[in-house]
Amino acid sequence: LRSYLDVFDGLYFAGAAGLKHRRSFDTGFYRDVLIPLFRSVLAEPAYEGKYFGLSATIGHENCTRLGYTLSCDGTKTLRHSLESAIAGHPDLIVLPEWDEQNENTSFRPTVYNSRSTQRIVRYYMQRLRGQQPSPMDGDDTDIPNLVVSYRKILTLGEQLDIEVLHIPDGTARDAATVTVELLDEAGTVLERLTPATFPGGLLADRTWQIPSERFSACRALRPRLVVTRNGDTLTVDEGLHHIRLRPTWNWDYKWVKQPLRDVC
Q1: What gap in Å lies between CA 86 and CA 101, rounded to an integer?
Q2: In tens digits, what is the pLDDT along the chain, a chain of 264 residues?
Q3: Are strands 24-25 and 255-259 parallel, antiparallel or unpaired?
């Protein structure tokens, strides 16, 4: 690091997407090892006033190069890498490509990501700037600002993770309770997961973990969300992506991340 700082105007660590352990982002290594190492060198008198850059990542789900897959883990990879970078107090944070489709690293809204990334980055930027959280233009604020995420294809035997994230936007003062149900192709409820309650003013998530082999009689699962807030109940089952179940192999590790306010 010193050899770079001797000839350049600062340090920029661009490799957040390479910090992984068993396909998940290694938050602890980034937050507790790498960032303090960079900061300690930059604090030396010889490098006073040099710039410091960090990166954040959404994941890296390239279906043609499985050895370089970094799972989105719902929205956790984006949130944890961005939170770690912000806590390091850099001069700038560089985000991945806007439109890299093949690696699924893009920040541009897509069918599978919808506007989940935009909503998350918006929340952190408003907080960084000391602004009050606010909804996006066109949002129906009667619908809680929730994002539901899960992998769209699983091989039987893999764990099914379903994440629900609440993003505060200044419109909700009452808590929302979410019940996730899993239906088969005919609409029969196979599983009703333990309800989770999300405070109105806090960024909070809940991830349910279910053994997929429990559904070996099905070719696909249909998620349904029942959301209760302030005495009102909203049921969301049309428009959510199904979960395809395969008996043997799979090469597609992409997550579907669906803000309820963006569901058709």
Answers
A1: 26
A2: 999 999 999 999 999 989 999 889 999 999 999 999 999 999 999 999 999 999 999 998 877 666 568 999 999 999 999 999 999 999 999 988 888 888 888 889 999 999 999 999 999 999 999 999 999 999 999 999 999 999 999 999 999 999 999 999 998 788 999 999 999 999 999 999 999 999 989 999 999 999 999 999 999 999 999 999 989 999 998 999 999 999 998 888 999 999 999 998
A3: unpaired
Residue type, 145: N
CA distance 232 to 3: 61
Residues 6+ away with beta carbon under 8 Å from 87:
31, 35
Would you state the structure tokens that stand for residue 151, as one six-digit string?
A: 């992998």
Count of Cβ atoms closer than 10 Å to residue 151 Cβ: 24
**DSSP code string of the chain:** -HHHHTTSSEEE---GGG-EETTEE-HHHIIIIIHHHHHHHHTSGGGTT-EEEEE----B--TT-GGG-B--TTTHHHHHHHHHHHHT--SEEE---SS-TTTT---S-BTTTBTHHHHHHHHHHHHHTTPPP-PPTT--TTS--EEEEEESEEEBTBEEEEEEEE---SS--S-EEEEEEEE-TT--EEEEPPPEEE-TTS-EEEEEEEEGGGGTT-SEEEEEEEEEETTEEEEE-SSPPPEEEESS-----PEEEEEGGG--
**pTM higher than 0.70 for the full model?**
yes
